[in-house]
Amino acid sequence: MASARAVLSGDAPDVAVGLLGAALTVRGVTARIVEVEAYAGDHDPASHAYRGRTPRTAVMFGPAGHLYVYRSHGIHLCMNVTCGTEGRAAAVLLRAGRITAGADRVAARRAPITDPVRWARGPGNLGAALGIAPEDDGADLLAGGAISLVLGPRPAPEDIARGPRVGVSQNADVPWRWWLAGAPEVSAYRRSPRAPLPGSGADGRR
DNA sequence: GATTTGATTCTCT
DNA sequence: GAGAATCAAATCC
User: What pTM was computed for the model?
Assistant: First the structure.
């Protein structure tokens, strides 16, 4: 079968689907990925790397299989897995997961939240549950370090749902979000308040 | 050097 | 449903 690195070197949408069901382990805590979003730097205005390489997005321009960590709204840390080929920015945002190992540690970390479904629902919560840190930016996921990624079997097509990305103000209508159908950790779709309406005012309802 | 935005989440109304 | 919280990075002049 193809190596994990080979899989991650594909196009962002392919990699995104491949990451569904994968197990991400951070210092002893493991989460099964149930929701992802793809971002391609070149032609995707929603991507942080769209305007070129910057110190913050440098990791996205590196080789596939590395972790890109960024701070959102000064409060939350979100995780991406870089993909594609080196020099061409692309990444997959990990939006939600289910804790499969280290639940006791997550429970303590996320207290007073006791509902496991809420521990890693949403990008910020996922990062919080796994205890990700800004210094984890750039970590190699395939080197067997403190953070490692293990791809699982690809879910059956009928178990995969697809839709528009959440919260982005650009390209808000590109259906580059995938999640496992029925996963309770997946949050309802919320369009960015800054996203321009697609048609001539036909939208606006949810 | 100053200003603005952000791939969010939580709480209150 | 709407607004606040809060830090850093990117953009603009």
Answer: 0.93
